[in-house]
Amino acid sequence: MQQLFDAVLAGVRTPEDIANTPLPQHYRAVTLHREDVGMFADQDSADKDPRKSVHIDEVPVPELGPGEALVAVMAGAINYNTVWSALFEPLPTFDFLTRYGRTSALAARHDLPYHVIGSDLAGVVLRTGDGVTAWHPGDEVVAHCLSVELEAADGHNDTMLDPAQRIWGYETNFGGLAELALVKSNQLMPKAPHLTWEEAASPGLVNSTAYRQLVSGNGAAMKLGDSVLIWGAAGGLGSFATQLVLAAGATPICVVSSPDKARICRAMGAQAIIDRTAEGFRFWSDGHQNYRESKRFGRYVRELTGGDDVDIVFEHPGRETFGTSVLVARRGGSIVTCASTSGFVHEYDNRYLWMSLKRIIGSHFANYREAWEANRLIAKGRIHPTVSVVYPLTETAQGILDVRRNTHQGKVAIRCLAPAEGLGVRDTALRERHLAAINRFRADPATGNDEGGPR
């Protein structure tokens, strides 16, 4: 591993240098163990601690198959599917691996007693399998998390509709929270040259997801002048949604949970902000939705929009907010939903939907083209990473807990092979032009400094 580490980090390297460096037999990875699946069986969801289920193991390097790539992972990131994985909710990910393993001899590699998790990475291509022509050893890349076979007709207009569509690192093995990762080569995209490894690793899943939800015709098809209500606007998904809305010439109405998160939304350029904690909104009481509170929330929104209901609701908390989201969308408006981090069973009063001709749009990650377009916006400096804290690989469990408890802002990144923060920048001029925006989620709340800086 040290020889490979030295080759990857070399200031000047050629494809031959990487290709001729021997691969190790094992690598360090963040794993879950099949034998631990029942460890939280008697606990309420809120009491489950992911630090108890997450391991750092030395695992064998997987066999490289046709159309695949082995990547040296410089950095990864935490997503909410990482939280679900570590809690074995809503079901253990080993169920996904077993089903996948039954599909082919090659897929059987994924059905193991351990699961290497993680659905984001930035790194360096080490090897490519048969049939791969677009990528070569030494290429600096990021990976989107759509793993799909494309053998069925269903996926050829929209790869997210392929019946064999899976999320890499969640429904497949060999994910990105590790020193090495195995991906399909069509998951790879160019790393933004002005970003560090940890910055480049962080947008993949959430930026692509927000792009499909809002910008794509497969989602809400947002247009110039639209107003968009964004729940959790300073979080992993919401921070990219806020940026996309602003970049499109639409108006975000940002819902946050603290003054510090409100400050970050203002730093991104948003003006209409609701601190739901400060305003004391409680959409549920005694197990039932409180529509008086939802209507009070709707009045608050209209005060910020000049009297209009919102065109689009960017919905991802799920159970806690969904009934309110349906209520506050304008007549003929859209509620575009994914994730459901507060609960998967949604309730809403259908009169507010059917009688006002609103639409609920289900959205899940992004297809190849949407992921590529979302990544291109990062590379051009139109959309920026939202890293607030970086942990080493050995402290990944703490990063998962941060996201679980919503104590973070933006994204939590993980250093894998990168020995320190700040490495991997190739275009310093572009970086300098956007440095304040790149660092704004690291701004010190105590100073109110919107220019950002390390924390």
From TrEMBL:
SMART domains: PKS_ER. InterPro entries: ADH-like_C, ADH-like_N, Crot_CoA_red, ER, GroES-like_sf, NAD(P)-bd_dom_sf, Zinc-ADH_QOR/CCCR. The keyword Secreted does not apply. Residues 49-414 form the Enoyl reductase (ER) domain. Pfam families: ADH_N, ADH_zinc_N. The keyword NADP applies. SUPFAM superfamilies: GroES-like, NAD(P)-binding Rossmann-fold domains. Keywords: NADP. GO terms for molecular function: crotonyl-CoA reductase activity. PANTHER family: QUINONE OXIDOREDUCTASE. This is Crotonyl-CoA carboxylase/reductase. It comes from Nocardia mexicana.
